[in-house]
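Progress note, project year one: complex with adenosine-5'-triphosphate.
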Amino acid sequence: MIGTQDPPAQPVVRLDSVSRLYGGSKNRVTALDNVSISLERGTFTAVMGPSGSGKSTFLHCAAGLDRPTSGSVHLDGVDIGSLREKALTKFRRERIGFVFQAFNLLPALNVVDNVTLPLRLAGARPKKAVVDQVLEQVGLSGKRRSRPGELSGGQQQRVALARALVTNPAVIFGDEPTGALDTRTAAEVLALLRQSVDVVGQTIVMVTHDPVAAAYADRVVFLADGRIIGALERPTVDQITEQMQKLGTWGDPFAIQQTGHEVRR
Ligand SMILES: Nc1ncnc2c1ncn2[C@@H]1O[C@H](COP(=O)(O)OP(=O)(O)OP(=O)(O)O)[C@@H](O)[C@H]1O
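Model obtained:
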């Protein structure tokens, strides 16, 4: 029937022919080589690849932390290459969430003040209901007044996740968000990431060396030498490990050893 079809979903992250070169003519490194990819809203994507394959560069270019040498990046429909530095900073603060391996919390601030910092930096007044809801979502309602030093690593990463969620961002980018956590705590944080995708339709892009972590994603994208060389949809840990072994040298030799775990979605 004509006219009754839904319009095609607009990708929330779109890279078109993105390359990122470092160095000069004598020591040129092509960290990203003509990468094009579209990520739909409400999806969880893991990015994997050997050490030096361009994962961090991909994440930094996709999130507007770095500018490609050529090509374009659209985030939430905005061509971020067209934004000047100040506008890009504002856009990142309002529309993008970040979760890093080092939790990057401010030690002098309590949980609520850490979580609401991005809102306050943007000049917005945090709404109590929204803060309560994200703290509930990450299971920290009882820790509102604790300082980071009084929390476990997993709890600190949940504060960082709440801080990323509180602005209702178009995308959350994670750089090894569970890299500093033990297996059980990592599983709890990954389950929360998964839940935010399934329950509130969050979009997540996460770089990881760990096949167990990657298996929480809807899609795993593999990079090698700055290029996307394959992807797996809803893969198992074993499928990811097999793909990694085919790709050869990996930065973290322990990653392959961690694959005996079953992933619970
Ligand atoms: N600022 C920089 N100056 C020069 N070369 C760089 C710079 N940043 C990255 N590179 C190079 O670009 C390539 C890709 O680096 P990138 O950090 O994106 O890889 P990665 O896959 O994240 O690696 P790892 O898993 O070891 O963190 C590497 O060869 C790296 O040495």
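The chain has one domain: 13-249.
The CA atoms of residues 99 and 174 lie 5 Å apart.
No further modelling is planned for this target in the current period.
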